[in-house]
Amino acid sequence: MTSPRRWLTMATLLILCAGLNIGLSGCQAGYYMHLARGHGELMRARTPVEQVLSDPDTPASVRERLARTETMLVFAEQELALPVDDAYRTYVALERGFVVWNLFAAPEFSLSPRTWCFPVAGCTSYRGFFDLERAEREAERLRARGYDVYGGGAIAYSTLGWFADPLTTPMLSGNEAQVADLLFHELAHRRFYLRGDTRFNESLATTVGREGARRWLAAHGDPTLIDDITLSAALRA
Which tens digit of pLDDT belongs to each residue from 128-153? Predict the structure, then answer.
């Protein structure tokens, strides 16, 4: 009989593959464990935002940004009908400038990306890693097979509502326009996710994020920052 802990581990791995857009066909046991370990470490490091705000050792800049995200979440729920629930109510201080590292690959001279497929999220055009060294090894394997490879850090990822996703240091690195755009983008993934269509999912979330940020700035922020919204698209998954 499979223990509850084992069932939880199996479910977590499957959900992570969905949320991080990882191909099930390309996953090996070690890769799965890397996902479970990386995500588990992130979840264990969470601290409630209200606790961070009340800590006298919290830098003023961090306290100000976290307080602002609280009002953004209320706006997202009440004005944009996005499912906030318990998402982004916790905070993780990260020393690195990204949460996950994504790899994109395409055959030489081709504009069609390689895809990784799995049951929950279908086929997707990028693969995520918590461990940069592991990502670099995978990039070398792909290059050896004739692929052109691009890697980039993502400052956020969505588990599509399966977990209470935390705020992180990289997520708060932009100005208020970019933070609002990013939050609304990730919450949009929780509202709707079309299995197997990376382009549609990212296009939808980008549209929701940018329009939501414009409305937020007009109502509560600095409207002069609207032009900065487009700069945030390159920073996220």
Answer: 899 999 999 999 999 999 999 999 99
Residue 103 structural domain:
4-235
Q: With the C-alpha atoms ordered 182, 234, 117, 140, is the resulting torsion angle positive or negative?
A: negative
C-alpha dihedral (235, 17, 124, 160), degrees to nearest 10? -60
pTM here?
0.79
Which residues neighbour 63 within 8 Å (Cβ) at sequence distance 6 or greater? 52, 53
173-220 pLDDT, tens digit each: 888 999 999 999 999 999 998 887 888 999 999 999 999 999 999 898
Sorted by sequence, the CB contacts under 8 Å of residue 132 that are 6+ apart come out as 96, 101
| Amino acid (one-letter) located at 67 | A
Domain total for the chain?
1
> Crossing angle of helices 198-220/176-191, nearest 10°?
130
